[in-house]
Amino acid sequence: MTLIVRAELVEGDIAGRLKGILEEVSKTAVDKEVGGVEVFMGVVKGRVGGFKVEKLVYTAYKEVAERVLERIAREEAEKNSLEAVVILHRLGEVRPGEATVIIVAAGRGRDEVNRATRVIIDRVKKEAPIFKLEVREDGEYWVIGDETRVKRARS
Length: 155
Hints:
Elements: E1 4-11, H1 18-26, H2 28-31, E2 36-43, E3 47-48, E4 51-60, H3 62-79, E5 84-94, E6 99-107, H4 110-127, E7 130-136, E8 139-144, E9 148-151
Parallel strand pairs: 1-5
Antiparallel strand pairs: 2-6, 3-4, 4-5, 4-7, 5-6, 7-8, 8-9
Keywords: Coiled coil
GO biological process, one term: Mo-molybdopterin cofactor biosynthetic process
Protein name: Molybdopterin converting factor
């Protein structure tokens, strides 16, 4: 079995694809020393700063963003001796409770995959040219990185 590294930007549901990804990644355990598979799934919060979130809107230059995501996946797989890293990230409108990003990592044990998954999500938020507009009851905000919000200027 070869190393699985995949990254995709997806319009529409990504949570429904998780079972198939887990089945594919779990097969790496058959002939490799894989003892841990971890999933991180980010979802849209219902409230931020006490205000109701209506939706997030993700946009990106797809080809460039997918290359960056794949580079992150490959680098972290190599650095952490992982057998698989899959990153799926939503594009378009995403409502509270819906999945925005899924990261699946498989490796020798829980420490390696847990550490790698945390680093991967941090890198995705900081490095990938994916733009997130948070639409709340008190206005619209561009979200930079993980927490910085800049009120959207209206012309």
